[in-house]
Amino acid sequence: MNKKNYVVLAAVVMAAMSGCAGQKEAKSSSGINPANMDTTVAAGNDFFRYACGGWNDAHPLTAEYSRYGTFDMLLENSQKQLRELIESLAAQPHEAGTAAQKVGDLYNMAMDSVRLNEQGAEPIRKCLDEIGAMTEKSQIVPMMTRLACDGIGTYFRSYVYADPKNSMLNIFQMGQGGINLGEKEYYLDDDSITRNIREQYKNYIVRLFALAGFAEADAKQKMADVMEIETAIAKASFSAVQLRDPEANYHKMSYDDLKKTFPEIDWDTFIKGFGIGELTEVNVEQIEPIKEVGRLMKTLPLSKHIAYLQYNLLDAAANYLSDDFVAAHFDFYGKVLSGRQVNQPRWKRAVNSVDGMLGELVGQMYVEKYFPAAAKERMVRLVKNLQAALAERIDAQAWMSDSTKAKAHEKLAAFRVKVGYPDKWKDYSALLIEQDSYWANACRAAAWNMKDMYSRLGKPVDRDEWLMTPQTVNAYYNPSTNEICFPAAILQPPFFNMEADDAANYGAIGVVIGHEMTHGFDDQGRQFDKDGNLKDWWAEGDADRFEERAQVMVDFFNNIEVLPGLYGNGQLTLGENLADHGGLNVAYLAFQNATKNAPLGVVDGFTPEQRFFLAYATLWAGNIRDEQIRVYTKSDPHSLGKWRVNGALPHIQAWYDAFGITEDDAMYVAPEKRVDIW
To answer: Model's pTM, two decimal places?
Structure first.
């Protein structure tokens, strides 16, 4: 399901790991383990190395990972917990239709390598042949929707969610898609590294067709057809930066106007394929790439579309088929793109698959066994403290007019806060897990999700719905519902340490809370009002002053050389960088407020203020391969972990004060050149 408007915390969630493993090792209530540090490096020259060097040295990258940090360590812990739950169910038979039967049987199918290898490509053979048997272009759209209902994306995306300008109502929406490399630059950039990735991608496409039984010459021709279509769509697609502009990605129109705007696409057949009886209006996020799809459908021969549809089926199904398909998929997406050397063990892949298909069924079991109620209670108090601190920060902004401040306070007060797990769980009774094939069950799960989503068309938005499962190690802000959400998996040790003092917890989970709150006022979130509508609520001139200050952040991160000759993308990462900046300022103020009547003392030689920033920095402890750095720099709206420390802290005066940073230190930034927002 595509719910594009929520802002995922992603890597920032690893922040809550703060002192991580070191907390237990040191048996310290400070939450900081000095062994995680490298004090041979001056704090003001490379604070990332100073705070995280010991942790990084103790956790070198293994062949399985392209990046391994505190977040990944927490994810591994969660996977082990889920494995214990799932394998206990998979070890014995259960009554058909029960949650235990669905979870256990699905896991067993994912683990049954003998059966998967015997089946080979047979689970997709019928669909592959039906695509190949198409004789008329009029069959393209119904096949496209059929594949979409099985979770297979093709030419563009479609989904149902809140109308960005009428956030209480679900609307049919469409957006660009259809390029399996994800970002348009992979198809268009001409540097040697990107050219090599394209060549390897072509080899991967040929390999999939060959594994499915196509002759070499046919496989190569189909690869050329796929690349022609994907490259054409890529040329017309918005860049990752362009996708960050909410107004530029909103084009609401009537169904009649949709037909007039894109006459080459059979829209009546399209909506019928999703079981939609009638459609009155639609939001087309990006016009140009969907126009290009219409042109391709009209001008290219059917054979090219057959190749394209078959490839999308093969690519989507590869990880649910025999080991040779899985290896092909990993060799490209894992090795070439990310630099990983070996695939995850089968049990991890199986756990992730069950989690993905039966998320809230597993979530109920997870919460019952692993989520402490005390963590939720303390988290709710922290959120209130952070809200109060953000309110103070809003009042302190001299660049913002009083009328905009009043609206900002209204939005802050209207935040919906979700902690731990949903009050109402999804009903999976209609989803059948059967013994035919692993892939068939993946299709049924996707179809169940699609039916659930499309059943909401034209109905009020369910504001109690969670966009993440409780066992997800992450958090998010959703501007359409003006909500912040913190799943259970990040509210337990070592992420959220009930035994640590306020210095570490405000530096870790406190910054996470502040980060999510600040998303409501970053370059995207600020364009949505308290009710979640895309609406300009800022007084004249305030937006200009905001953008002027935000440009300082853009320029700063544009000048960071992440690899030789490769620089950060300050515009792409602006929202997350602003959220880090705001999160640090807000959490630090909340920390000061919380401890002003009972100040904390020095522990392990570090003041409370120093421990706050050490906890924040340790969020980002980790190692990463060059290949993954390139992927993230091209596509990830988050800055790299190192730069969420060394790029963020030089703009925080309290950090200078805590560690005595002066203009003689390498990380020093003059006050007039620092970011000052929120």
So the answer is: 0.92
Q: How many angstroms separate the CA atoms of 91 and 82, rounded?
A: 14
Identify the pLDDT of residue 3. Answer: 43
In three-state secondary structure terms, 347 is helix
Contact predicate 205/223, CB 8 Å: yes
Both structure tokens of 339: 């630099």
The pLDDT value given to residue 22: 31
Burial-class residue 280 by CB neighbours within 10 Å (0-12, 13-18, 19+): exposed
Task: Name, in order, each residue with C-beta under 8 angstroms of 324's C-beta and a sequence gap of 6 or more.
Answer: 120, 211
Are 468 and 363 in contact by the 8 Å Cβ rule? The answer is no
Q: Which two tokens stand for residue 220?
A: 């190569």
What's the CA gap between 94 and 102, in Å, rounded?
A: 9
The H or E element that residue 67 is part of is strand 67-69
Which residues in the chain land under pLDDT 50?
1-5, 9-28
Q: What is the pLDDT of residue 14?
A: 29
DSSP string, 363-399: HHHHHHHH--HHHHHHHHHHHHHHHHHHHHHHHH-TT
CA 620 to CA 641: how far, in whole Å? 5
> Judging by DSSP bridges, how do beta strands 156-163 and 166-176 pair with one another?
antiparallel
CB 51 within 8 A of CB 646: no
The answer to whether 617 and 47 have CB atoms below 8 angstroms apart is yes
Is residue 487 within 8 Å of 472, Cβ to Cβ? yes
CATH of domain 137-339: 1.10.1380.10
Domain ranges of the chain: 7-82+358-424+464-673, 137-339
- Tally the residues of the chain: 678
Starting at the edge strand that comes first in sequence, how are the strands of the sheet with 416-420 ordered?
A: 7-8, 476-478, 483-487, 416-420
What is the predicted pLDDT for the residue at 26? 36
Pairing of strands 416-420, 483-487: parallel
Q: Give the Cα separation of 366 and 371 in Å (integer).
A: 7
Q: Using CA atoms, how far apart are residues 107 and 105, in angstroms rounded to an integer?
A: 5
Contacts of 170 (CB under 8 A, 6+ apart): 160, 161, 162, 163, 456, 457, 458, 459, 460, 461
Distance CA 449, CA 452 (A): 5
Half-sphere exposure of 37 (CA within 13 A, CB side): 25
DSSP string across 130-171: HHHT--SGGGHHHHHHHHHHTT---SEEEEEEEETTEEEEEE
Under a CB-based contact definition with an 8 Å cutoff, are residues 387 and 475 in contact? no
Give the Å distances, CA to CA, from 460 to 160, 163, 225, 590.
Answer: 11, 10, 42, 36
Q: Which amino acid is at 30?
A: S
Is 217 within 8 Å of 206 (Cβ atoms)? no
pLDDT at residue 21, as a whole number: 30
Which pLDDT score is estimated for 607? 96
Q: Among 1.10.760.10, 3.30.450.20, 3.40.390.10, 3.40.640.10, name the CATH number for the domain at 7-82+358-424+464-673.
A: 3.40.390.10
**Are the C-beta atoms of residues 496 and 379 closer than 8 Å to each other?**
yes
- From CA 426, how far away is CA 428, in angstroms rounded? 6
